[in-house]
């Protein structure tokens, strides 16, 4: 039997995504389960985490399983991902061994591996999680690399809870300022899931340099076509917010400036006014606001927006627990 | 229903404290329970821990629950605690989100946050745990901030095991030397619980500069009055030890020198003779000795004292497990 | 009743080792158990770990128990191991308290403590784990110090799975190059277990300087004598590999150069050709290859060897889980 991984929602059909969301909603109503009884999950963090780690660890527990948390290079050995290397540098072992050995111990392997922010042509290959998927003999789950599919599910579930059917809703993914150039993962993921749900999606960003990688733009257009929605890019704040049903905010570094962040910095600084505030939200169709968290208050969104009843970021964060239980139960159940 | 936290024993009546101690004694006789079955506990450590982490984690397990351990700023994101900030510094997220999200995942939130040792007027506000209590929608438990209420319960239980009723016993809290200026938390806590138990308490310290914060001195006097004991300060080692039933040692930095530790250092160095040794213990009424641990042997107490039958520090440490199970079971049972 | 520890296989008879291996094989066939139901295990890591931590933590879970993971000096307090010290340096507490307190919380204490690589006459005393065994009131398990007995059991189980009875098989322990001087623990352990299984053991190394500590050479000769095998040293690659049934590779620093590693470096560098490759393996009797992992590919063994069907390193790594469950179940069952 082929191993089914959860690396990107793009590998899962709309029907399969809907099934995961239904399972998640069921876990939200009734948290306890035995789908992972006696089973174990390895959580590998190459980058820090609060929500992801807590929700995966407790999700495994609530289903009768146990998660072991590993931080390679910190409390575990640094790992080599390239094949054929003469390993006389830092890494003490190769992904071939790491993935195979963990597959003997654990029933699921979950990986967080952010880009290195030096060369997008390298980072966009998503080598770390692909190497895990290549060598592992158990399912691999993406805990955020250059996409963040678990966040997508949590986001979609929160939107459905508040809006019901999402088809043809106006969805704005807005870039916001952040003092550092951040990962495009959640932005890529927002495009994928919003278009998959058939929404009319506007990507709002300061300049064409902030448009996302063409791979995800193309997936977005394809999803829109297949699910009756649309995807467009806008640099006009007022136009984008007008009549929006959903505003989703995220900061990210402009891809053409990848690795040359000092040159991008003044451009970013010049667009601090992209902050989500009450005036902008007033332009929407009583729109919901959300964000994947962590969020810098009064930089990405104002206190007033974060504390407003239309802010569903905490609901979305809670849903991480439920959707990840659905993903784990589904993948472990196939074995 | 109001959320009941466990931030300081001062918020809990003598009868409530007695009930917690009885529950703890019951857990000591019979460790297994189902009070946390399917429930989870988030343990947040802003500072290192051995006993606290182990005893909370295993305590949750023994009651059927699961504890997730987080170190913000190390393996989780750094957190902002001030309201209304434009968050363009280090912290990636605000306590408002952290506490609310964790409340969705976990049934209890436990926090260790030591003072920063720069400005006592800031540290004495105990902002970190108060912010958690403000924003969390589940009970918050103090794992040591500027008081250490779980240590208090463990200490009181150990004393009762050896002395029975504690009323009118002579209790000496003695300052000891340590190469670094330490937190006053356990000293504050010792005052609170010893007076709450109606003991005759002597705070023994080198000079008036080492008297504890007036807030805790005042709580101590109040407790003494209500529970039939007394509280006095002494700088005379012989007088203090004479006839003592209990000697509890702790080192702490002098509050008037807070943040100017180089100036305090020679004063501390001049009082190395406050070390607890056999000669001093010989002055007591066959007194017990204890300490919260970690303890530097032959600096705070001699090997002979630590290895003597009257040293109950290991019993006190064990009791951390039992009392914390009582606190968790009590708070989780109210939800 | 005396406490039984698992510090080295040399303290356990051949019959006892065989019983552990049988129990491990039974766990491999049927992983779930209740031998640690309600019990807990403290895992103390003074050095990093991936396999060891994962396999111990999941092994405890599979037997109904819970493992708490501690890293003294990192997320727990630094520890003093010498008796009688005036503790005014770095360590905040003494092993006497650490071991006694952990013994009150946990049913088993497992310790990883590598040598410090400055003075072999100090490191060979194995003070850290011996201090734990001295002060603990529960069984202590060695997770690698200057021997690695759990690896021995995993190795022996993997060899038996592939070869059946091991008596009189030709076993080659070969030194290999590594850019850093490594611990001799696994090499010492390979000698102990291979001789205990009655194999004809050849220690292959570049020069007499790389022969292992006389303590382990002597144990090896003793074991060989008692179990019908043999032990010899060789510096001739071709002779050693010829007709071998098992090739086990490991790198280690030469003991006479301990703490003077810059002087050893050119010697090590001159023996990079000790790498395990297909040409060398072709000299064997269809021999198996294994290694304890982590392994630097194309430095210690080539990709071709690592990916060959005769490489059983992944099986050996998997067996860590099963043998450690056997050790934990056996020791906890005696209490």
TrEMBL record, chains A, B, C:
InterPro entries: ArgF (IPR043695), Asp/Orn_carbamoyltranf_P-bd (IPR006132), Asp/Orn_carbamoylTrfase (IPR006130), Asp/Orn_carbamoylTrfase_sf (IPR036901), Asp_carbamoyltransf_Asp/Orn-bd (IPR006131)
N6-carboxylysine modification, residue list: 300
One term of GO molecular function: N-acetylornithine carbamoyltransferase activity
Catalytic activity: N(2)-acetyl-L-ornithine + carbamoyl phosphate = N(2)-acetyl-L-citrulline + phosphate + H(+)
Entry superkingdom: Bacteria
Binding site for N(2)-acetyl-L-ornithine: 144, 250, 293
EC number: 2.1.3.9
Annotated localization: Cytoplasm
Pathway(s) annotated for this protein in UniProt: Amino-acid biosynthesis; L-arginine biosynthesis
The entry's keywords: Amino-acid biosynthesis, Arginine biosynthesis, Cytoplasm, Transferase
Domain Aspartate/ornithine carbamoyltransferase carbamoyl-P binding: 4-161
Entries under Pfam families matching the protein: OTCace, OTCace_N
Binding site for carbamoyl phosphate: 49-52, 77, 112, 148-151, 292-293, 320
Site feature Key residue in conferring substrate specificity for N-acetyl-L-ornithine versus N-succinyl-L-ornithine, where: 92
Residue ranges constituting the Aspartate/ornithine carbamoyltransferase Asp/Orn-binding domain according to the UniProt record: 184-330
Function text: Catalyzes the transfer of the carbamoyl group from carbamoyl phosphate to the delta-amino group of N(2)-acetyl-L-ornithine to produce N(2)-acetyl-L-citrulline. This is a step in an alternative arginine biosynthesis pathway.
Similarity-based family: Belongs to the aspartate/ornithine carbamoyltransferase superfamily. AOTCase family.
Complexes and interactors: Homotrimer.
Name the UniProt record assigns to this protein: N-acetylornithine carbamoyltransferase
């Amino acid at each position: 039997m082929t191993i089914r991984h959860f690396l990107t929602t793009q590998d899962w059909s709309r029907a399969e995504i809907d099934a995961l969301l239904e399972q998640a909603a069921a876990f939200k109503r009734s948290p306890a389960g035995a789908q992972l009884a006696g089973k174990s999950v390895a959580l590998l963090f190459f980058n820090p985490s609060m929500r992801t780690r807590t929700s995966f660890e407790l999700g495994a527990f609530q289903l009768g399983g146990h998660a072991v948390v590993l931080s390679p290079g910190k409390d575990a050995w640094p790992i080599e991902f390239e094949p054929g290397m003469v390993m006389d540098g830092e890494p003490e072992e190769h992904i071939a061994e790491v993935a195979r050995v963990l597959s003997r111990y654990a029933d699921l392997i979950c990986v967080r591996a952010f880009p290195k922010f030096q060369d997008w042509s390298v980072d966009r290959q998503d080598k770390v999680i692909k190497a895990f998927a290549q060598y592992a003999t158990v399912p691999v789950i993406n805990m955020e690399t250059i996409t963040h599919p678990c966040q997508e599910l949590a986001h979609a579930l929160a939107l459905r809870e508040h809006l019901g059917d999402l088809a043809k809703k106006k969805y704005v993914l807005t870039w916001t300022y952040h003092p550092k150039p951040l990962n495009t993962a959640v932005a890529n993921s927002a495009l994928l899931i919003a278009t998959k749900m058939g929404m009319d999606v506007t990507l709002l960003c300061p300049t064409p340099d902030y448009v996302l990688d063409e791979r995800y733009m193309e997936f977005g257009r394809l999803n829109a076509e297949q699910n009756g929605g649309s995807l467009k890019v806008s640099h006009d704040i007022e136009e984008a917010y007008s009549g929006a049903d959903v505003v989703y905010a995220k900061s990210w570094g402009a891809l053409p400036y990848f690795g040359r962040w000092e040159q991008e910095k003044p451009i970013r600084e010049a667009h601090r006014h992209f902050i989500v505030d009450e005036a902008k939200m007033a332009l929407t169709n009583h729109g919901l606001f959300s964000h994947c968290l962590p969020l810098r208050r009064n930089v990405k969104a104002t206190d007033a927006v974060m504390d407003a009843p239309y802010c569903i970021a905490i609901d979305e964060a809670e849903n991480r627990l439920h959707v990840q239980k659905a993903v784990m139960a589904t993948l472990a159940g196939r074995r």
